[in-house]
Amino acid sequence: MKPSINPHPTNDEARNHYPIVLVHGLTGWGRDEMLGFKYWGGIQDIEKDMKSHGYETYTAAVGPVSSNWDRAVELYAQIKGGRVDYGEAHSKKHGHARYGRTYPGLYPKWGEINPETSMIYKIHLIGHSLGGQTIRVLNQLLAQGDENERHATPKDELSPLFNGENKPWIHSILSIASPHDGSALTYKVKELIPHLQQIVTLAASATGSKDNPMYDFKLDQWGLKRLPNEPFDRYYQRVRNSSLWKTSKDTAEWDLKPEGAKELNDWVKAQPNVYYFSVSAEQTYKSILTGHQIPEPLMNPLFHPTSYFLGSYTQIGQGKVPINSAWWRNDGMVHTSSMDGPATDPIVSYNKDAQKGVWNHLGIMRSYDHIDLIGLGVRDMRAWYRALGKLLYSLSAQ
């Protein structure tokens, strides 16, 4: 089945050539991990395919279970180059190290001025799942910085990401099946790292090695760096049993909760100079017996238990985000109603004329589960990503 949406580029000729950076979701990994099995495409390399069709594309690799703040500052360092600075105030508040890894930069001239055009070297960001939240946080920090960091840090030690000098370096943001308003799945604590061992085993099987899957949680700031020759199972258990999950909100678990997402949405806003796009997905239908949403027969069996949970969960109560039947349709991991954009931002249906500062919803991918959209299911998604690239390159460079 072909994807049910067509981005409808407004111009067959590219109007910009800004690079595209792919940002993975929860439990995702980089190009150098999983012995070559790609998060974006599996054995079908979406980044490579995009490049072969003229779209300059890079794949980021940020903390797979880290908070959106930590992931955003890691993403900044990875793209621009330099040492990760989580911030003096942030690191003290949450009790982890201020500095992280150092990166050479995927696109070091990002944010500089093109001497030939006098325009800023910008980028497009595509985020899947949690990645959609992460790229929003990065854009918010670029636009307004952080007042707490400015108060806590001497000016000569302050990361440029926090200084509050507006940096219009992101041209567009495109989220794919992102839980902008959170996912009730996080209430099942054991699903924090959903079926990770099975996913890693699947990836290792596809690449021919189960003993050394080369997976990195990137939690150095918490003292959870993988040790030399440490078996993955032992590393996984050390991370999973860490007190981090019980004592801190500086995690993906909190940001993905509806309450955490609401807290994030209170300070992360759509910026007027950025194009925003979103893609939703679903693979459930309404049961005539219960009225709940249940998995379609062809949904990946990996997601059946989580889909049933999302398709029937409700909650009310003080301090809780109300969840009712409007949330039940899902893709196995995320509520479809959460995917079109944050409830606090304006959302419109895309009509071939993209607007800045609002979420241009590209539509719902029907009968697609959460990993189908990144090419980890049975579908080849490369042509669809080319169409997304064509859409982003059709946007005015201004």
TrEMBL record:
GO terms for biological process: lipid catabolic process. Signal peptide: none annotated. It is found in: Secreted. Keywords: Hydrolase, Lipid degradation, Lipid metabolism, Secreted, Signal. Its EC number is 3.1.1.3. Transmembrane segments: none annotated. Residues 16-383 form the Lipase-like C-terminal domain. This is triacylglycerol lipase. GO terms for cellular component: extracellular region. Its main location: secreted. The keyword Signal applies. The lineage of its organism: Bacteria, Bacillati, Bacillota, Bacilli, Bacillales. It comes from Thermoflavimicrobium daqui. GO terms for molecular function: triacylglycerol lipase activity. It catalyses: a triacylglycerol + H2O = a diacylglycerol + a fatty acid + H(+).
